[in-house]
Amino acid sequence: MEKLELVGYFNTVETTREYSGYIHSVGRTLTIAILGTLCGLTDLSEIHHWAKSRHVHRFLKENFAIYTIPTYDWLCELMSIISPTSLNKLFTRWARTLLPDFLDGLTLSFDGKTIRSTGKMGEYDKPLHILSVHLAELGLTVSQKTVDEKSNEIPAMQELLGLIDIRGCMVVADALNTQTKTAEAIINNGGDYLLNAKGNQETLMKDIEDYVQDEKLRAAMNSVITNEKNGGRLEFRQAFVSSDIDWMGVHLSNWLGLSCIGAINRRFTINGTTSNEWHYYISSRKLSPEDLLMYARNEWSVESMHWLLDVHFDEDSCRLRSINSNENMNMIRKIALNYLRVYKTETNSRLPFSKLMLSCLCDCHELLKFINW
């Protein structure tokens, strides 16, 4: 998306109340926010201060036809009336253009993040919680949905599955979303699932655990072992899979498409202390033990995106009082991260995000490199 296309594309975003946009259009407002965020700025106050500086204002005028910069109060007001639902529709549509035509074998990871600072603000009945969809292999966020609280992730995930193209993808999520209706929605929309069997599906977990912990049965399962050393942490992983699941009885009728069970034994040592964990899985795809390790690890890709939001944009300390503004800025940060990720992939750049954003802050013309991919 290039220069004026950026402004024009986001000009179609709807507002929650009638607004002519005569002086400061929605598209120009969102463009300022996106470009400022690409410079690593963390809130609207910093973005406004950056945008009104002489050299940045000249850059915005020459490259984006942004001739006037709104006051800080007006910038905050504009961000508060932009509809997060409308912005997310455009965000999802734009993110799809960044993806390859075929997603076969790629991993879509679903997970929620609570913006902690909103839990301490009187304007919020409950902390703002946002469920994100992340394409693990490419490091791109493709959609999101705000929910009232963590337990509401379940219907939100099922709704998102109907809004995005998951054909050929492996869908992974935490144990909260190990639900029969979620598995059904994944299969009906052309994807496959790898779901974690834990306490919220106690009978399912217990049956798989009993099978895997029987030494004779486990010996017949396909398995692989990996060892990793990262800093002072030593980690041993052994994965087991089996598509011999005729014994699972009622689970076969409850879980649409169920084709495989798996388990991962993780033992890791930190500072001389060793922990031992078992994780149990069901999948609609017949997996190799190597596949199981890969997809289980990919589940955590969305957590790395959440980590970037906190480390680079200090999101958990965000003090915007408008709920709409917080949702909109969360999407804008993800748009910025997507731009940076695509640039790193296309150029094989090894620079960290922080250095790339610093280069934009030092020379705003560097921004053109990122938005022209």
Shape: elongated
Oligomeric composition of the shown chains: single chain
**Fraction of residues in helix:** 40-55%
| Count of runs of 4 or more consecutive helical residues | 16
Beta-strand content: 15-25%
What is the topology?
Elements: H1 3-10, H2 26-38, H3 44-51, H4 54-64, H5 72-81, H6 84-97, E1 107-115, E2 128-135, E3 140-147, H7 153-161, E4 170-173, H8 180-188, E5 192-197, H9 202-212, H10 215-219, E6 222-230, E7 233-242, H11 250-254, E8 260-270, E9 273-283, H12 289-298, H13 301-313, H14 323-347, H15 353-362, H16 367-371
Parallel strand pairs: 1-4, 4-5
Antiparallel strand pairs: 1-2, 2-3, 5-9, 6-7, 7-8, 8-9
Helix pairs in contact: 1-2, 2-3, 2-14, 5-14, 6-14, 7-8, 13-14
Description of the molecule:
The chain has 373 residues and is an alpha+beta fold. Strands 3-2-1-4-5-9-8-7-6 form a nine-stranded mixed sheet, sandwiched between helices. The protein is elongated, with a radius of gyration of 23 Å. Helix 2 crosses helix 3 (44-51) and helix 13 (301-313) crosses helix 14 (323-347). 41% of the residues are buried. The model has no long low-confidence stretch (mean pLDDT 90). Among the domains are: 3-90 and 318-371, no CATH class; 175-290, no CATH class. The protein has helices at residues 3-10, 26-38, 44-51, 54-64, 72-81, 84-97, 153-161, 180-188, 202-212, 215-219, 250-254, 289-298, 301-313, 323-347, 353-362, 367-371; strands at residues 107-115, 128-135, 140-147, 170-173, 192-197, 222-230, 233-242, 260-270, 273-283.
